[in-house]
């Protein structure tokens, strides 16, 4: 049985070895005797060739025999491969590679195991065909070949991952650079086996962290979080996260802040993806001290430099960070804690605080035993130049956990506040600053107490009641700061004045308050040129003041409004002829000014706003169109008669926003356009009928695909329905809220909407609990009642969702609407016999049933 370069097995030897292998796998055979016979055969130089041949080519033999040959070959190669003749080595390698695409999974797996052993023995430098075959199989789109290649690759990654992250003669790239993109792509494979093998392979490199993986970390983590909730248990049960968590925890302590920042991002991402909390829980005692340590100001933090600057020195242009004005989005609550952005530059300190914040919301009070001893130790530090940073970090930590750990902190809240108040006068300005922020984080609980359920609106009301008696001194201090601060910090004062106006509302409309507040603001307004971006925060401030004062702002409104018109006109000219206009076009001015134009809408008939607005509604920039349609809705509410000369054009342009191929990319534009159509329908009624059916035809597909378009990222943008309070029109109201007009006879598009439960229920009604009780919600429910009364059978399949929507009200203040809702519910109760009504009620939560009792059902 001598080996040759064109080796072929002898029939007799083949049969004898196969017979021994068949006996070996038999449960009744004499294993010791068979082992001795196999050892005898192993003395022949080409015995391993026979084993490779049986594994790869003995297709007439049982799979168990072929697999046994492979396993015996693997064991033999561990001790004999390096001493084998090169032709035999080459023969065995050549027979193994085709096995990667074998029809039987066991043959593929056994071949992969042997290949991994050979790579352990000799690496891949002398086996270039291996890498070529693995890549070819991975790219084949043939499942057996892909699985066989992935199986072999996963075993190589498990046993000797460093081999793939090495430079190799004759190769332009390290093997890991070739394989990693393919492995990450397999995270999305429809085949669970490939997802499992690829994920397991990549995870072997976590502790090695080759550059290729480091550069692909975002893509890896994104795939990892998805696979952690994989539908296949074999994928989910992989111990995938532990290695990643250990690695991230180690790197989070890296002396390079950029590296540590990348790792720190992981903790927030983990929690936001809603992965199982138990996976991270055991690491919290190690993680929390790392986060606290990283929350201490670094010596080169720019905030330290800012704090030491002379406040009387004017800011230079290069000192001012860019300020981007966001477009108006009708229906949004602006509930993000933008004021929590106490440092504009995202850094390790800020990221660590954000991670602690989200961890506190996931794990609550259970982090306090680990956190608080360190915080208390830092707070008790002395006032020397080094210790103040530790104290500042401790105060930041208290603010970060204020919401998530409030149950554990609330019994000590008075002590916390008592401790923080003196820090407002600390000699270190950054301690004064962070103490203000931390107190603000506890403000809701200071005002309302713990467990208050009425939400933000009620908190604002209660806070306003506390602020109103103190308005004079608050304004005096704000305006003192206004006179002292330079350009950069003036933005903070503008925000504070605007926030105060939003909170106290009409309480601000007193001459003594206006005399304190308005003269400095008007003086600043007159100082700024029409091309100065410092106008943006001032205009936002004016908008909040105008909304708070109502008619009390009228004596200031006309000059502000007229200047806004002038700015838009100059920007529109600059867009086509910057030389003549004397300024460079900047659409941010248009977006900001459109927001402010609603200050004095009663004077709009004397201006050119209508024509300017139509141009903005057709602008090629989505953010300009978004703000333009928001203003169009405001105009429709206050002075719709001004729009009549060009009403059909406005309606046509608004409807186009609902049927654009780029709807998904411009949802906020479509939202505002649809809302504007609804406002017009409420006021102009019959004039909207020519576009009514076109609007409905556009909205039905939106509702059909609402989950993909709206609810994935913004579930509160739930489609709604409402009715114009006339007999002539029923309105379609969508996207919190977006509307259009329909005829009362329920035309085909409306019937299609009503008869499809997925349109009316899941997307139209299921998210009502997130919408506050207001006049627009009342309008929406009038429409819902009208639609149901006109076509009750069509909405029957959505009755449970309708009841949940009705139960979302805290109180319906309109007596007419209350009666309409009662009529709808009683109508269905009378319609549903034989226990059907009771079956519907059984699908509701107990608290929902209690709320429906208000309507006598």
TrEMBL record:
GO biological process assignments: protein import into nucleus
Localization: Cytoplasm
GO cellular component: cytoplasm; nucleus
Domain Importin N-terminal: 34-102
Ranges of Basic and acidic residues composition bias in the record: 313-322
A single MF term (Gene Ontology): small GTPase binding
Ranges annotated as biased composition (Acidic residues): 303-312
Ranges annotated as spanning the membrane: none
Keywords recorded for this protein, A-Z: Cytoplasm, Protein transport, Repeat, Transport
Sequence segments annotated as region (Disordered): 303-332
Keyword Transport found: yes
Name recorded for this polypeptide: Transportin 1
